[in-house]
Design goal:
Blueprint: E1 3-8, H1 18-29, E2 33-39, H2 46-52, E3 56-63, E4 71-74, H3 91-101, E5 105-111, H4 126-147
Parallel strand pairs: 1-2, 1-3, 3-5
Antiparallel strand pairs: 4-5
Amino acid sequence: MKKALLCVGNELRGDDGVAIALGRLVEEQMPEWSVFFGYDTPESEFGKLRELAPDVIVVADAMSGFKEGEIEFLDLSDERTYLYSTHNLPTPILISYLRGICSKTIFLGISVLLENVLHFSEGLSQGASDSAFVALGRIKELDGMLKG
């Protein structure tokens, strides 16, 4: 089974880079996953994803509006759902397009504090760094379900 992780975020906006940190952890610990770093223009990875033709795509991104530290797989099939994002393509539209490449496209939201993504700053807060490891655990749980 081909599995892909698309990481969205901007490392120059503090905790918005949490999904990029997750991608690096997945590369280190889960070599059977193909990791794509979309940064703040995830659509630039669509061609590579189409070429891979994965059986499942997980899109990971920082989100706000939830308690810090919450890491959830969310159904974004309702395009009216709003999540704060620093990239130009709204997340529900991104997911909808990716489902044209792979019907099993899942969004993994990693909740961060909004004030930690509004200004230019490098590096993750301790909370976001911890959340990247929790998100890795969620990817490992999903991986186990995909194998079973």
